[in-house]
Amino acid sequence: MRKGSIRLIAAASVIALAITGCSSSSDEAANTDTEFEIFTWWASGGEAAGLGALVDLYKAQNPETEFINASVAGGAGVNAKAVLESRMAAGDAPDSFQAHAGLEVIASYAAQGKLEDLTALYQSEGWDKSFPADLIKQTTLDGKIYSVPVNIHRANVLWWNPATAAKAGITKAPETLDEMFADLEKFKKAGVKTPMVLAGGEGSWAMAHLLDYVLVASMGPEKFEGLFSGSTSWTGPEVAEALKVYQRLLSYGDKGKNSFGWGEAGAAITKGTGGFFIMGDWASAQWQNEGAVLGTDYTFAPGPGTVGIYQWLSDTFTLPVGAKNRNAALAWLKLSGSKEGQDAFNPLKGSIAARTDSDLSLYDDYLKSAAADWAKDRLVGSTAHGVTADNKFMASMNAAVGKYISGGAKDNAGLAKDLAAAQAAVVK
Questions:
Q1: Which InterPro entries match (predicted)?
Q2: What span, in angstroms and rounded, lies between the C-alpha atoms of 333 and 127?
Q3: pTM higher than 0.90 for the full model?
Q4: CA 114/CA 97 separation, integer angstroms
Q5: Contact of 81 with 391, CB cutoff 8 Å
Q6: Which domains does the chain have, with CATH numbers?
């Protein structure tokens, strides 16, 4: 298996040590709880629709349990995570909360003793056979598993409007960064209002998301992963070159000062006023929820420079230490990890299932394409969505990007130094 990859295979032997002698902390009991509170940042659009499908199943299976949806709006959880931290510090943890697989789960929560060990639940539900072995590793610390993946998202997606592209003389998706810049010039000459759609609101996470993609596209996956292993320097020539690409991309937007959230900004694609948009595949679910049609109002391709690369993230659910309605939470986790639950949730959420046995006939053409790429592409974790970075680094990255944009997107060296300082602080 190639470095950094997570394949759609079930390798039970890889997880065997974690299962052997596992904790009994997640031993199931009948759900006699009268309430259940879930905490996410899925408050609108396709995200809320996906959550709603899962909630409907839960209510049908647990009719005596009142469902409490404690969603906090804000893309990538920029608002929700702050609220969650305050609640957990005050001893008021929700019964289950959303967290990204990778360092977000492992370093931000599990290593802090905030989550229950779910290894026994994995054994009882057979998830060691139905989830990819390497994905399970992304929720595992010291042999114990701490969250349940409900999906896989792709971060490095290029979106555009076919009719707008045709008017600009663009007949195929750009595959390289140079080709993308050539097409941006075509959009500009054709009078497209915003050749490069930018989303600068919601705590700058969407601009950090764009930077994360640019780093992979410019440097390649090995150099990118080296930023977190220490083999690539944040202040070295590779990052310097990537930041020139980033700076140039921003020049095709609203001078890097767009204050729209990702949903409002992305509407420029389906309305035909925007050229290209780099955003995760939750955008497709959002647009479909708004009535747009895939293939007519928008289409997709891997981000230029990342053809054959799948920059991934995974939403998972947890069992916090001290959850008031523990049995109700266990019922939610079992549903979230089930085939029925994942195939109800993901087609509406705009993601593919984390399970290996998903029924792809329920998914649209984009998601079928994503599933095929997930099975064969070089996989690279998302920084902006918690795979390669914990909450502390993500917050620092958002702040560094916000500072860069507010300064006119001119201080590339300063941005590199801020990112290096953020990584150094995490390592310490």
A1: Bact_solute-bd_prot1, SBP
A2: 11
A3: yes
A4: 11
A5: yes
A6: 12-151+316-364 (3.40.190.10), 154-311+382-427 (3.40.190.10)
Q: Spell out where 308-369 has E strands.
A: 309-313, 315-317
Runs of H (alpha helix) within 190-261:
205-219, 221-229, 237-250
The Cα 372–Cα 106 span in angstroms is: 28
Q: What was the pLDDT predicted at 114?
A: 96
d(CA 109, CA 369): 33
Among the ranges given (32-36, 131-135, 200-204, 261-265), the one the predictor scored with the smallest mean pLDDT: 200-204
149 three-class SS:
strand
At 77 the pLDDT is 66
**Mean pLDDT across 377-393:** 96
Q: Could you report the per-residue pLDDT of 327-348, keeping only the tens digit for each? A: 999 999 999 999 999 999 999 9
Query: Dihedral through CA 88, CA 151, CA 364, CA 55, nearest 10?
Result: -50
Distance of CA 425 to the CA centre of its chain: 23
